[in-house]
Specification:
Length: 601
């Protein structure tokens, strides 16, 4: 082969290789360039996005700044900033309006230029405290009037300023930021309130003076009323005593007469005397009880009694009233217990008042007493009482007033039927005290029915023969001293004691009673002591006997007051001086028997 040809082929191959190499380099550079251009394009897009976000953020900031500026400038309260020397370096529009000062002239002024002269000491004291203690503080100040800033006194308006100190990194105060609220209306309200308070104080003082004067008059009226009440009480006590004393003779003698030989006509007369006497006693009791109820001094008592025997005793006097024109029936439900605990005296008073009315207003037909069981438990029983009659009845318009005191169903009834008008009022009060209520149903010309219920405790003790056989008790071993100055009452009580087989010795006054006990040293099982006696009364005699017994170490003799005094204060007085019990006149054989039963227990 030609050497030149080989050389040319070699050069050709070298050129081709260089050309391919150059092409490879160009291709590689182009790829790198394209990549670089792509990256630059991407970064440019990101940069534009960031610029857009930055522009948006700047717009948001500008909008937020505008909103803050609006909120700051047009807030309902004034804002300002002070430097430590007290010069205003920033303020909002509200404060400009408040001080009637443009911002251009406001900046650089002292706040004290707008504060009333007499209040500047308070302002400086507040500033000193804030700077010293670096704490927030508030103060109420009066600024000069919006239109007349240079005036003082009452022409200004009130603001409440809240101070907030602003500190640097070294905790040094370099600014004070203040919020200013207009409290003029509040201060005016306070002043009005103070004025009203002073006016109210004046009125209170005036009213107090009037009340003091009225109280003086009331005190005089109260004293007069108390004196009247005392006079009334003394009058009632006196009248009760004066009526009960002869009534004791009437009823006592009639009771003794009842045990003598009488023919039918005499027996009828005697029953009428007894019924009339008991009616008079009821009237006296009603008047005294209503007086007690008025002053809240009436209290219930409780004792054990046989209900059926009690009803027999209640209705016995009314059996005399029943005749050919009126029948009287009593019905007691068999399931009602026999032995109960309650105030038998007050229950008797209620039933007697209602039965009296039934017979009083019934000329013919019937009167009925019914006892029905309303409720029962192992410890108590509620009994429904019904008293019905076929009398004249009560008009509907009068039913609401019949339980008022001193009221009768018709003034025209006062003369033909009599009565005090207290019976139903007392029944109403007594039943209410017993925890019950009373109702009435009536039909004019056909009759009336009164109903009431009372709650009684059940006595689970067995009834002894003594309850049913009282008349068989032997009292012959008892010796009684009767201190009584009234000859008739001496005769009555001594006769009753004799009827019971009791030996009785009579003393005509307290001094004689003292002598028999203290000087003669006689023993008595019971002393019946009248309270009102000449020379030495029953109260003094009792005190002297108790003193003698104490000095001589003698056991106390039971002393019972036998007196026409029945008011609570008299009963309490008897107990205080040493008496053991109280028997009110007119006394009955039954009361004396029950007293001796207690002594034998």
């Amino acid at each position: 082969m030609n050497p030149n040809g080989l050389q040319h082929e070699k050069e050709f191959h070298l050129k081709m290789m260089e050309k391919e190499a150059h092409a490879d380099v160009e291709s590689k550079n182009a790829q790198e360039m394209r990549g670089l251009i792509h990256d630059l394009h991407t970064h440019q897009i990101e940069l534009e996005m960031q610029n857009e976000e930055l522009r948006s953020t700047q717009l948001d900031l500008l909008e937020a700044r505008d909103r803050y500026s609006d909120l700051y400038d047009f807030a309902p309260i004034g804002y300002l900033t002070l430097d430590p020397r007290g010069f205003i370096i920033e303020a909002n529009v509200t404060l400009e309006d408040m001080l009637s000062e443009g911002r251009g002239t406001l900046i650089g002024k002292r706040l004290t230029d707008f504060i009333h002269q007499e209040m500047q000491d308070d302002y400086f004291l507040c500033i000193s405290t804030i700077l010293e203690k670096n704490e927030r503080k508030s103060i109420d100040l009066q600024l000069q009037d919006r239109e007349q800033k240079n005036t003082c006194g009452d022409t200004g308006f009130w603001v409440r300023i809240d101070f907030r100190p602003v500190v640097d990194k070294n905790e040094k105060i370099y600014q004070l930021r203040l919020s200013v609220s207009d409290i003029t209306d509040h201060k005016i309200g306070e002043e009005r309130l103070k004025s009203l308070y002073k006016e109210l104080e004046c009125r209170v003082e005036q009213r107090t003076a009037e009340l003091v004067a009225a109280n003086g008059q009331l005190s005089q009226s109260t004293l007069a009323a108390e004196q009247s009440a005392r006079s009334k009480s003394e009058f009632l006590a006196s009248m009760s005593h004066e009526i009960r004393t002869p009534l004791n003779g009437v009823l006592g003698m009639s009771e003794l007469l009842e045990h003598t030989m009488l023919d039918d006509k005499q027996q009828k007369y005697l029953q009428i005397i007894q019924l009339s006497g008991n009616t008079l006693k009821t009237v006296i009791n009603d008047i005294l009880d209503y007086s007690r109820i008025e002053v809240g001094k009436l209290e219930l008592e409780s004792s054990s009694f046989c209900l059926r025997k009690f009803i027999e005793e209640v209705v016995a006097p009314f059996q005399l009233t029943a005749n050919g024109d009126i029948t009287f029936d009593t019905e007691i439900a068999p399931e009602i217990p026999d032995l109960v605990n309650g105030d038998r005296v007050r229950l008797n008073q209620i039933l007697c008042n209602l039965l009296n009315n039934a017979f009083k207003f019934t000329k013919q037909g019937s009167v009925n007493l019914q006892l029905n069981l309303e409720e029962i438990t192992p410890s108590r029983v509620v009994i429904d009482f019904r008293i019905s009659d076929t009398g004249i009845g009560i008009a509907p318009e009068k039913l609401k007033t019949i339980f008022l005191p001193f009221t009768q169903m018709d003034q025209s009834t006062t003369r033909p039927y009599g009565g005090t008008g207290l019976g139903l009022a007392i029944c109403y009060r007594l039943i209410d005290l017993m925890g019950g209520d009373i109702t009435v149903e009536s039909d004019v010309g056909k009759g009336t029915c009164f109903g009431f219920s009372v709650c009684l405790d059940i006595d689970d003790k067995r009834i002894t023969n003594r309850v049913f056989q009282e008349n068989c008790t032997d009292f012959s071993s008892l010796k009684v001293l009767l201190a009584e100055d009234n000859p008739i009452n001496q005769l009555v009580v001594k006769g009753m004691l004799s009827k019971l087989g009791v030996q009785a010795i009579v003393a005509a006054d307290g001094a004689e009673a003292e002598s028999l006990v203290c000087q003669n040293n006689q023993h008595f099982d019971l002393i019946l002591m009248d309270c009102e006696m000449p020379f030495v009364d029953g109260y003094e005699a009792t005190r002297n006997i108790r003193q003698w017994e104490s000095e001589n170490a003698c056991s106390e003799t039971p002393i019972y007051a036998l007196t026409a005094h029945v008011l609570e204060e008299h009963v309490n007085h008897c107990s205080l001086i040493g008496m053991n019990g109280h028997l009110s006149k007119p006394v009955s054989l039954k009361q004396l028997r029950e007293t001796f039963d207690k002594l034998n227990e």
